[in-house]
Amino acid sequence: MSTPGPSDDAEIPQEWEQMLRAMFGADTEEALRELRARGMDPAAMAAASGLPNDPALLGQVLAQVRRLLAATGEGPVNWDVAHDVARQVASAEGDPSLTTSQVRSATEAMSVAELWLDAVTDLPPAGGPARVWSRSEWVEQTLPSWRTLTEPVASSLSVALTSVLAEHLPPGLSEGTAIPGTSNDPNHLMRQLGSVVFGMQVGQAAGTLSREVFGATDIGLPLVREPSTVLVPSNIAAFAEGLDAPAEEVTLFLALREAAHARLFTHVTWLRAHLLGIVAAYARGITIDSSTLEEAVAEIDPTNPEALQQALSRGIFAPSTTAEQDAALARLETALALVEGWVDEVSAAAALPHLPHAVALREMLRRRRAAGGPAEETFATLVGLELRPRRSRDAATLWAHITATGGTSARDAVWDHPDLLPTAEDLDDPAGYQRRRDESAEEHADLDRALAEIFGDETPEPTEHDG
């Protein structure tokens, strides 16, 4: 067999040659010889590549390849890709800059909302700035929180995905040897590919959410760390179209919900860590059904990030849950329902005296939150987590019952400590909540008395001098 010479390279289309030279640089000729030696025909690869003939489009493809191969991070999610995809999706349907009128109207609505909430809850305002964002600004400000939410789960999934993908590489690329002209061995390239795939998926979810959300707390988790209230006027205006309620009334109602969320997450200092801790507990126990994963990967091209992303969206890489994970998911669902139910009850109480359409808007928001949207479904298939509180109505009923029997102070005092949080049993039977709490308190009192008898009561008897 003759050694491939320069004449072989002439068969390669110009755009494919540009791609190869972008990848391998000065070592392109050596890389081509190595590819042929391993049974891969560069000309055939070029014919099947689908590369565009348009120089501008080709330039974009080459830039993406260079960015991928230049990536040095080892994280399970490529956040550069996630950022770019999220921004593209956010602006796909238009994302004009906010006008002065939009900013002023939203800011005023949040100020009014704080005044109305003061009358129905003991929790004070969050204290941070009132912010008004475009969709792209929402992406920029919330993406760091998506890292906290997704990386623990994506890390476990990425290990399994990379292992299986490596077994389905084209012949010659799965032997663990480096490709000439690159500093990446195949396993490293597979990790990069998996990272890109997850980045595309997270970016798709965040970008889609940016077109659906009204503020920074719609998913029930705080997506900004610092105390603040946020409204996204473009999405509020789209939601208000076709409703019987005036746009100003819709904005005020949504401002009430955002401000109530902000008060809760700001002043219940343990709540954010409590929710994220449940997510972390879920992530630690992830196991992957390797046989199912192998069957799925065998049907797709493992070197095609878009094909992998589509497979992810179908949930074929969804992790298998253990009993411990099911328990964590149940705790998360209950906690999210309690947050949503409290906000629902408090914002409705604040709105009823002022907004004629408060009841209708409340019901519409309940149904919208319970049904979820495309972004929430994408997130659920990606990491197996439901951020949709199915029992928010039950939680709202429970909070209303606590308010009716003990007042707003008793209702808000439940958030003083995580041990005081209602359980799924309380959601099943709101009327029995106080009875169960009284019984639990009596049991603890009995235990304290028993321990005092066992170890002796060391508390000295009061004397005359003690008063």
Write the layout of secondary structure elements.
Layout: H1 6-9, H2 14-24, H3 28-37, H4 42-49, H5 55-70, H6 79-90, H7 100-118, E1 130-132, H8 135-167, H9 186-210, E2 229-231, H10 233-240, H11 247-267, H12 271-284, H13 290-298, H14 305-313, H15 323-351, H16 358-371, H17 374-383, H18 392-413, H19 424-428, H20 433-455
Parallel strand pairs: 1-2
Helix pairs in contact: 2-5, 6-8, 6-9, 7-11, 7-15, 8-9, 8-12, 8-13, 9-14, 9-17, 10-11, 11-15, 12-15, 15-18
Order of helices and strands: HHHHHHHEHHEHHHHHHHHHHH
Sequence of strands across the biggest β-sheet: 1-2
How much beta, percentage-wise?
under 5%
Largest sheet: 2 strands, parallel
SS class: mainly alpha
Gyration radius from CA atoms, angstroms: 28 Å
- The figure for the number of domains is 3
Low-confidence stretches: 1-10, 171-184, 459-467
How many helical elements? Answer: 20
What percentage of residues falls in helices of 4 or more residues? Answer: 55-70%
Mean pLDDT: 76
Write up what this structure looks like.
The chain has 467 residues and is mainly alpha-helical. It has 3 domains: 6-70, no CATH class; 79-390, no CATH class; 393-455, no CATH class. Helix content is 65%, strand content 1%. The protein has a two-stranded parallel sheet. Helix 6 packs across helix 8 and helix 8 packs antiparallel against helix 9. It starts with 5 loop residues before the first helix and ends in a 12-residue tail after the last helix.
